[in-house]
Amino acid sequence: MTFSVYVPLLVTLVLAVLAPRAARRPAPRAAAWALACTALVTAVGWLGSLALLAFTGFAQIPEVAEEGHWSVAALRTEDPVSLCVAAVSAVALAAGLAALGVAAVRQVRHVVWARRECARMPGDTELAVVDDEVPHAFALPGAPGRIVVSKGMLRCLGDLEREALLAHERAHLRGRHHLFQTVWRLTAAASPPLRPLAEAGRFVLERWADEEAAAHVGSRTVVARAVGRAALAAADAARPAALAVTGGAVPQRVRALLTPPPPPRVLPFVPGALLLALCCAALANAASESEDLVDTAVRAQCAADAGAADAGAVDGAGVDRDRAGQRPQRSRDACRDHGGTGERARHRG
């Protein structure tokens, strides 16, 4: 297996370092979609590369080789991946899949909790005002979602600032931002290097909602003031596990609102798109090489079996020349199938 199997791992590490900083510059909506695509593609590439590397060690187990009817010696000769690398990859893959399962269960529980809380909130409108002096405001995703605001938060804001706050939370619901968060949490669980993308994604979602609130209110200054006052009021309160106006890096959000909105630009996304394309191409190439490797090992085992059968026919008196009859039907089928595959591969070459 060539260097291509390591390319998705390297691309994941590079984007985990560069993408969070680059995502703060363009328009937040486009940045959120870019981060989500980056997380999905690199997570698949990360797990796929680990799986291919782990397979090279797993396939050399005698019982596995016997079941697959391939030659362990051929695998060791053709594949330069060491057993140590394969073992580490297998452990990392198992840990990533286990963490992914745990994160998926947590996300399901969070969705169930959010829907239950939506049903428990007073009234049947989108806005639910709770009798709580602790300042807080957040969006609960559901079908439909609810905007929860405490009386303590409403007292901290003026009329225009309240409108900005509600527009901000409404943008979270309308944009289904909880789905973006789900993608980042699951991919970060499966691939730990992607955790910075999840942190950057949270900030980008808040910026996205800020920009939509500013467009709705018609004043970026009002939204900046609402964000700042809400954050100061809720500084001592427990932050809920939901999308809130006080989330993200508040000073950076206020600073961005006090400047003109970022223009839509495509150029900043081009390098990332090229790296993602490289990741996909390298993973596909590594998978193809792994398949060719197995075909080679199977043909080697078939040749060894045929040589052993011929030797037995020559050396053993009265022994049937076709020793293949004593092998399982599965082995003969594997030899025939992979023999055809090898002929087609040589034909393509």
Strand content: under 5%
Q: What is the percent of helical residues?
A: over 70%
| Poorly predicted regions | 317-328, 341-349
Quaternary status of these chains? single chain
**Main sheet overview:** 4 strands, mixed
Structure annotation, total helices? 13
Task: Provide the gyration radius in Å.
Answer: 29 Å
Distance between the termini: 18 Å
General shape: elongated
Record field, number of beta strands: 4
Quickly give the structural class: mainly alpha
The gist of it:
The protein has 13 helices and four strands.
Provide structural commentary.
With 349 residues, the protein is mainly alpha-helical. The longest helix is centred in the last third of the chain and has 46 residues, at 270-315. α1 (7-22) packs parallel to α9 (195-217) and α2 (28-58) runs antiparallel to α9 (195-217). 70% of the residues lie in helices and 4% in strands. The chain has helices at residues 7-22, 28-58, 62-68, 72-78, 83-120, 151-156, 159-174, 177-190, 195-217, 220-233, 250-257, 270-315, 329-348; strands spanning 127-130, 137-140, 146-150, 243-244.
Summarize the topology.
Layout: H1 7-22, H2 28-58, H3 62-68, H4 72-78, H5 83-120, E1 127-130, E2 137-140, E3 146-150, H6 151-156, H7 159-174, H8 177-190, H9 195-217, H10 220-233, E4 243-244, H11 250-257, H12 270-315, H13 329-348
Parallel strand pairs: 1-3
Antiparallel strand pairs: 2-3, 2-4
Helix pairs in contact: 1-2, 1-9, 1-12, 2-5, 2-8, 2-9, 2-12, 4-12, 5-8, 7-9, 7-10, 8-9, 9-10, 10-11, 12-13
